Amino acid sequence: MWAKTFHGWPALLFYFVRYMERTDFMAIHRGTQTIETQRLLLRRAVPEDAQSMFDNWASDPDVVKYLTWPVHSSVKASQQVLQDWINHYVQSDYYQWLIVLKEVGQPIGSISGMDPNEQLSSIEIGYCIGRRWWHQGIMTEALQAVIHYLFDTCDFNRITARHDPNNPHSGAVMKKCGMKYEGTTRQSGRNNQGVCDTAHYAILKNDWDRPALFSNGLSFKNDTELVQTLYSRLDENSRLNRSKAARVEFLTTVRYIEQYLAPEAKILDVGAGAGEYSLYFARKGYAVSALELSDRNIEAFQKKLTPQDSINLVQGNAMDLSRYPDDSFDIVLLLGPLYHLHSEADKLRSIAEAKRVCKPDGKLFFAFISNDMVILTMFHEIPDYFVNGDYNKETFRCDDFPFVFHTIDACRDLLRAGGIKILHEVASDGISELLHDKINAMDDESYAQYLRYHFYICEKPEHLGASDHLLFIGEK
């Protein structure tokens, strides 16, 4: 099991998840529904939980030290609290879960959503867990699940939490879940220690869709599982079409593909995402086969298909194209798989499979995320990234998580090791991400001229490194 934790924001997620600020606030109350995670079951309380509540956390002075309710002196006290919760479950705006650790089979803590504010579409979260299960990532896992539920199912816009600064571990959980520190108010609260300062944290729904949530506690067994997890949270469906700036990469790639398209060309789109390239070329009359790994991307792709779209869409892995015969496609696109394959062997295997199914005179297109430009782009978003960013401060190599980054030389070495003759090296989106606000504000005439300028410089060696995404075109 791999587990990765970052103190900054993982690079490149901005390109998948930039959204407009939300202005319409209206939560849809769903109440306390069951939520399941890898290790946990979050569910409603029942009377039979009283003994577990008492034994596992409510009777422990260390657990309630910084909380506002007193330690339970008997099981009867736990019974009374649980019955109060049970009585309120009929209300759709009542959110109170017990945290059940699956391997234990009984509740070990609780988490709740309190005081929903209809005007602001906001809610506060409080939580506690038995001392035996501290510092194991369990509370973080539970909080992430509840945040996900309140944003995605109930459509809240703002979620808050607070803690006594003398209990920094509680604040650490909030940070790990992407909540932002908003300040400390002095002598503004009271808990079992008396009057106390209060540290305030919050997360907005559009923050939830941004990278912070991917920087902590993400566990996966292999690249396939990581892809499934990433794209269950990222909106690949709009990545290439959400704005003029985002469209530059797509238009550049299409421009190069079209240079090599014959009228009867057959195209294989490996790692097809939500179908942006496949649909474009299929609707121009080309025979397109598409292979995609992510469940969510497959679902988004299928929703866009019409009866007139003749695309053979299948779910599969770039390292196994055995369903396709040798020498069967004129154009083979790998515009995503090399963002996700960590080992050199897996990268070379995917390249070998692409070569195998490509005709002898066919062309292969490979997309990479540029290591060197990531640092500058992240600095554009995060002022202290040069000091606190997730890269090696000596070598300037970004950590390959959750995406895999390549320098230009690494791209060249990999493709040559895979037996690819490189024909073009292209800065596919250039500095469009850094200039996204200005580009998106352009009128059509200005945007068309910007594209002409981009096409003019995108193969110049002196501009190649100044691009978030790289496109390499080659042949066997």
Question: Strand pairing plus helix content: what structural class?
Answer: alpha/beta
What integer is the average pLDDT? Answer: 89
Envelope shape: elongated
Q: Which blocks of ≥5 consecutive residues have pLDDT under 50?
A: 1-23, 211-217
The proportion of strand residues reads 25-35%
Put simply, the count of helices is 18
Strand order of the largest sheet: 2-3-4-5-6-7-9-8
Oligomer status = single chain
Gap from first CA to last CA: 37 Å
Instruction: Tell how many strands the DSSP assignment holds.
Output: 18
Helical content band: 25-40%
Largest sheet: 8 strands, mixed
* C-alpha-based Rg, rounded: 26 Å
Could you walk me through the main structural features you see in this protein, from its secondary elements to its overall organization?
With about 475 residues, the chain is of the alpha/beta class. The chain is built from 18 helices and 18 strands. The strands form 3 sheets. It has an 8-stranded mixed beta sheet, with helices on both faces. Strands 11, 12, 13, 14, 15, 16, 17 and 18 form an 8-stranded mixed beta sheet that branches. Strand 5 (about 105-115) and strand 6 (about 120-130) form a beta hairpin. Helix 2 crosses helix 4 (about 75-90). The protein is elongated and about 80 Å long.
